[in-house]
Write a structure and sequence with these properties.
Distance between the termini of chain A: 76 Å
Largest sheet of chain A: 9 strands, mixed
Oligomer: homodimer
Strand order of the largest sheet of chain A: 1-2-6-5-4-3-7-8-9
CATH topology of the largest domain in chain A: Rossmann fold
Number of domains of chain A: 3
CATH architecture of the largest domain in chain A: 3-Layer(aba) Sandwich
Shape of chain A: elongated
Largest interface: A-B, 56 and 55 residues
Number of helices of chain A: 16
Helix content of chain A: 40-55%
Structural class of chain A: alpha/beta
C-alpha cells in the first residue's frame, strides 16, 4: 500500500501535469509498474521526452510525509473519494494536451473530495478587484454557502480571497485549488486564509509538495476549478484575465458559465461584459440565480419582486379614463369623456369601478384622482 | 391645400391615436372626406365609438396656427418627408391596436423627418438616473453624435435629457418625441432644452398642440421613439420602466435592442440586466458598438484594444522554460530543464530564442529573467 502511494507520488512529480502519455501508461500497467518503467527509462519516445529531466528525482516518501504532516493525503482514481464523474467531462472534449484529468490530487481537509462537485460553484475573478467586485463576490459566496453550495476558487488575492472568506464566514464549504504544492502558501499574504480553508474546507492541488506556482500552472489549475464546479461565476475580470481562462474551461467541460455585469466604466468588468456579449455566459446578479444553475433538478430561483402599481389591474377603458383625470383638480363626466376620447356613457362604468377600488373619487359630479401616499 | 391641412389637423385630434379605424377610412376616402364623415357621424360603429366624444370639437385652424407660430408643421403620409420606410415595420407585426403608425406628426425643426431613421439610435432610460447612468448616457450620445448618428429620445428627466444635451453639445442631431403637444413643454423643467432641440434638431409628436401628456400617451409615444431609430439603447431602467416598453417596441418592429450593464447593486440597472439575461438585448458598452448595429452596411466597430504581453508570441516550450526561471535569482541549464520538466537539450533552443527577444539573459552559464519596467 505504501509502495503504491510512493509510486503515485513519484509519478505526480516526474512529468509536468497533465501528461496524457503518463496517464495512459498508468492505466495500462498500474502505478507501480509505470513508476518502475519511467525510472528505468523503459518507456516510449514521447513519454521519455516528458520524464527525462526528472526521472532520477525520487522524493516520493518525503512528499507523502510532508502532506501527512499537514493532515492531508494523496488521492487517485483508485480511491473512493476520487471525483470520477466530475472528471469524466474531460473525455468528452476534443482533448488538446491540457484537457486531461489530473493523475493525482494532493488534498488537505476533512471533507471527501467527491462530495464537492455535485453542489459547487466556482467564484473567480481578478486580483485587482474593485470595492464593487469584492462586495458582489462576498454577497454571492455568502448566498451560495447559505444554500449549501460549496464555493470553489483559486486562493488568489482579490475576488478569489473574498469568495473563500465569505463562504467561511457563513460556515459554508469552500475549496481552494492551488497552482502550487498544498504546503506552499501562495500568495504568501494568504497563508492564514489557506490554513483556515484546509481546516474547514479543502485545499487541493495536482502538484506535489514544494512546487512553486508558475504562469502556465495557473492556467492548468483553472481547468480543475472549473471541473470541480457545476457552474463558474466570473465576478470581475479584465480584458486579459485568468478568470476568462477558467470560464473557457467551464465551457469546454460542459459546465455553466456565469458572469456578473458591472459598470461599463470599470476596466475589470470588461472581461465579464465580453463573455456576456459573445453569448458565452449567463448574466447573474444574485446567489439564487447561480443556485438555479448548479442546483439539483427543480431548484428554481424565486422571481425577483417587481414593484406593483394600483393601476395594474385596470382594463384599457379604465386606464384611458384614469389618464383623462388631471393631476390636480377635478373634471366633469363630459370633460373626462372628451379627454379620454371615449363616448360619455362609456366612462361611467370605468369611473364607478375605480371609485370602488379607491383610485378616483367624485364630489358634486366632478371627478378627481385619489392621491396615494 | 389649407383645407387639406385643416382636415388632417381635425383628424389628429378627433380620436385618441393610434386609431386604426380612422386610418383605414382616411386611406379609403382621403383626409377631407374622412373629416367630413366623422364630423357628421356618418361612420361605422367602431369609428363612431372612438370619435363620438370629440367630433364636435374643431380647433384645426387654431392648431395649425399654433404650430406655425413655433415654426413647425404638420406632416402626413402625403408629404415627401413622411418616414414611410421606418413606419412600414408596423405592418409586419401581429398588430394589436397600439401597433399602428401615426396618422399625422406635428414637427418643429428644420431637419427633414425622413432623414432621421436611416441613421439614428434611441438612447432611453429612467428618470431616476444615477451619476453612472448619466455619465454613460452622455458618453454614448456624444459618441453617436460624433459618428453622425442622430440621438432620439423622449425629452424626459434623467437619461433622456442627458442624451439630448450631450448630442447637442457635440453638434449632433437630436430628436425629441413627445407624449404631449409640441407646444406643451413637458416636463416644465425642460422648457429651455426642448426649445433648443426644436431649434437645432427636431421636436415631434402625434398629439395636436395643447394636448397634455398622460400615462398611456407615454407608452404610445414610445413606439415612435423605437420606430424612428435603427437601434434602441436602454442605459438605465428599473424593474418597471418606460424604457423597457420602448425596448419592447423596438423588438416588435424588428429594430435592434441594446442594453448597458451596470452594477448589480443598482436598482436602476435591473431592467437592463433583465433584458440581457432574457436574451432580449445586445450588451453594449461604447458608442462604437451601437454604431455597428445601426450603421450602414459594413460599418464595424473597431476591436477593443486588449493589453498585450511580451509572452504572447512564445511557443509552448518557450513558455514552459520561461515559467521555469525564478522570479528572483538565476538557474543553470540543468535546473531550468528540471523545473520545466523538459530534457536538457530541449531548453537550449527556447532560452536562446528568448535571449534574442530580450526576455531572458545569461551570465556565467546561469539564466535569469529580464525585468521589464
Amino acid at each position: 500500500m505504501n509502495a503504491d502511494a510512493r509510486a503515485w507520488a513519484y509519478l505526480s512529480r516526474v512529468a509536468e501535469p497533465p501528461c496524457p502519455e503518463l496517464a495512459d501508461l498508468v492505466t495500462r500497467v498500474g502505478a507501480r509498474e509505470a513508476a518502475d518503467r519511467v525510472r528505468r527509462g523503459a518507456v516510449g519516445e514521447r513519454l521519455a521526452f516528458h520524464t527525462e529531466a526528472r526521472r532520477d528525482i525520487d522524493c516520493a516518501q518525503d512528499d507523502l510525509d510532508a502532506v501527512e504532516r499537514l493532515g492531508g493525503r494523496i488521492v487517485t482514481a483508485r480511491d473512493d473519494e476520487w471525483p470520477a464523474l466530475a472528471f469524466s467531462a474531460f473525455g468528452r472534449s476534443a482533448r488538446p494536451r491540457e484537457c486531461h484529468p489530473p493523475l493525482v490530487l494532493w488534498v488537505v481537509g476533512e471533507v471527501r473530495l467527491d462530495e464537492v462537485p455535485g453542489r459547487a460553484a466556482a467564484v473567480v475573478g481578478t486580483r485587482a478587484a474593485t470595492a464593487y467586485g469584492e462586495h458582489v463576490a462576498a454577497d454571492l459566496s455568502a448566498g451560495l454557502a447559505a444554500r449549501d453550495v460549496a464555493v470553489v476558487s483559486g486562493g488568489a488575492y482579490g475576488i478569489d480571497g473574498v469568495a473563500h472568506r465569505a463562504a467561511l464566514a457563513s460556515d459554508g464549504l469552500t475549496v481552494a485549488v492551488l497552482a502550487a504544492g498544498v504546503d506552499v502558501p501562495y500568495p504568501a499574504g494568504h497563508t492564514a486564509l489557506l490554513r483556515r480553508i484546509a481546516e474547514e474546507g479543502l485545499v487541493v492541488s495536482e502538484y506535489p509538495p514544494g512546487v512553486r506556482p508558475g504562469r502556465l500552472r495557473f492556467l492548468t489549475r483553472n481547468r480543475l476549478v472549473a471541473a470541480l464546479s457545476g457552474a463558474t461565476v466570473v465576478v470581475e475580470a479584465g480584458a486579459r484575465s485568468g478568470a476568462a481562462s477558467t470560464a473557457g474551461w467551464a465551457r469546454t467541460l460542459g459546465r455553466t458559465v456565469c458572469a456578473v455585469p458591472g459598470p461599463v466604466t470599470s476596466s475589470v468588468s470588461v472581461g465579464c461584459h465580453r463573455l456576456l456579449r459573445d453569448g458565452n455566459a449567463e448574466l447573474v446578479t444574485r446567489a439564487e440565480d447561480v443556485v438555479e444553475l448548479v442546483g439539483r433538478m427543480g431548484e428554481l430561483a424565486p422571481e425577483e419582486q417587481r414593484p406593483t402599481s394600483p393601476l395594474d389591474g385596470l382594463d384599457e377603458a379604465q386606464r384611458r379614463v384614469y389618464d383623462a383625470l388631471p393631476a390636480r383638480g377635478a373634471r366633469t363626466l363630459d370633460e373626462v369623456a372628451v379627454a379620454a376620447g371615449l363616448p360619455g356613457p362609456r366612462v361611467i362604468g370605468p369611473l364607478a369601478a375605480m371609485e370602488i377600488a379607491g383610485l378616483v373619487t367624485q364630489r358634486d359630479g366632478r371627478w378627481k384622482l385619489v392621491r396615494h401616499r
